[in-house]
Amino acid sequence: MVPIIIAAGQSKGVYWSRVDVVFLPPAGAAAGNPLRSDSQDVVQFAAVIQRRAITKSAEPDIELNGASLFAAGIREGYRVYQPNAGSQWQRSFKRAVVSIEVVSEDEATATQRAMQLADSITLSAGQEQRALGVIPTARISTELSPSVPTTSYHGTNRPAAVGALTVLALALASGAALMTGKAKLKARNKPRGKKSLLDA
What we know:
Blueprint: H1 2-10, E1 14-24, H2 40-56, E2 77-81, E3 97-104, H3 107-131, E4 141-154, H4 158-189
């Protein structure tokens, strides 16, 4: 148990990278135009591209209920999702945004992976509209927010981890000592057999 406690105390944090791909209506869309940035047409198009991005990936997308990847204890992985404005049981997507989160033990890996996913979504949006025959002036465009992924370091809660494991180690040690004591007491109290005449 001691090596486990030491490992918990020395556990490193992770790098968390995040960026949003914002879907924008055509340049000609303005107030009064049904195709606005918050219209369901643009929101639904963003949802289609988000699902395509997950389907094309060789890696499994991680599904969480509002928690960030690092808070869930994940050290390597990513999420590509639409922000949920509703609840866990009744989802509501009101913004034409696809959010990207990446966690990795390496800072450069986290940033590069987030940028690769963002580029893939942007490329997929263009390909989808070209395949549908949408003319350039009527196409939905994308932009990153922020312009490059933001990456931050998140350490583990070492004192809490060490404290929890220390308590567990003490509990196991106390339990083992109690069982040993009971075994010795039982051995002392065990009645001895009567001696036979041959033993006399």
